[in-house]
Amino acid sequence: MRKPIIAGNWKMNKRLSEAKTFAESLIPLVNTINDCDIIIAPPFTYLSALDDILKSSSISLSAQTMSHELAGAFTGDISAVMITDCGCKYVIIGHSEQRLYHQETNQACQEKCKVAMQNKLTPIYCVGESLKERTNNITLTVIQKQILECITDLPLDSQEIIIAYEPVWAIGTGKVATPEEAQAVHQFIRQTIEKAKGTEIANKTRILYGGSVKPANIEDLINQADIDGALVGGACLELDSFVELIKKTNYVTH
Ligand code: PEP
Fold first, then answer.
1. Is residue 109 part of a domain?
2. Which pTM value belongs to this model?
3. Catalytic residue ranges
4. Under 8 Å between Cβ of 93 and 65
């Protein structure tokens, strides 16, 4: 049984006061939710303040990225231990915006996931094809490479990784993959994990969909056999839509 997840990626949004109000308001709205893991990924600078607010709730914190280095002369970078000190249980690795603007490669993602796991963080590892790659019919080749180059040497027998399939053409564009298109890629990801790591690990790995998820389309997505929740950008910034996504996901377990 895989418990579904709704994870909200705030990206570079909200002021500190807005972040605190959001977290304080969210807690009572989701305190009866037991069957969906709730994660929010605010900017680094808000993690500590939000940890103080959320630590007695079931809402977990994630960082949006991290360095693969643990300490030293890396101006501007943040390490795994720094984000765990701020209360994070999760870290997003390989988001398409990090791949695009910070040249994050599959190899770099693999190193970051390894260091994250060594520091008791669960990586939320993002994969996804560009529009050009989909048009050229190489979606599955791209996804397979992204998955294998990251997970092959990771200790998934003892630690969890969460995969987020986020077609780049669907992120922030309002164009959502159809449930069938998304399911086909999710099933392929699970088969790829199975070949690399075995059936047990493949069956327990949670695979999220991301890309223009909204309250209006979440149910059709989450009802697909291999879609175990969503990584949400735009629709996680408003309290009402984030809570609606969580409530609609709370009853679906694959
Ligand atoms: C994201 O950036 O991870 C994302 C899925 O964004 P949006 O929901 O806005 O498409």
1. yes
2. 0.97
3. 95, 166
4. yes
Q: Looking at residue 180, what is its pLDDT?
A: 96
- Residue ranges lining ligand 1, Cβ < 6 Å: 9, 166, 171-172, 210-213, 231-235
CA distance 22 to 25: 5
Domain count within the chain = 1
Query: Would 12 be classed as within a structural domain?
Result: yes
Q: Is residue 254 part of a domain?
A: no
Per-residue pLDDT tens over the stretch 131-187: 999 999 999 999 999 999 999 999 999 999 999 999 999 998 988 889 999 999 999
> Is the pLDDT at 242 greater than 90, yes or no?
yes
Q: Name every residue whose Cβ is closer than 8 Å to that of residue 11 and which is 6 or more positions away in sequence.
A: 43, 64, 97, 233
- 213 C-alpha to ligand 1 centroid (Å): 7
Domain containing 107 — which CATH number? 3.20.20.70
**Domain range enclosing 70:** 5-249
CA-CA distance, 51 to 194, in Å (whole number)? 35
CA 12 – ligand 1 centroid, Å: 12
Q: Is residue 14 part of a domain?
A: yes
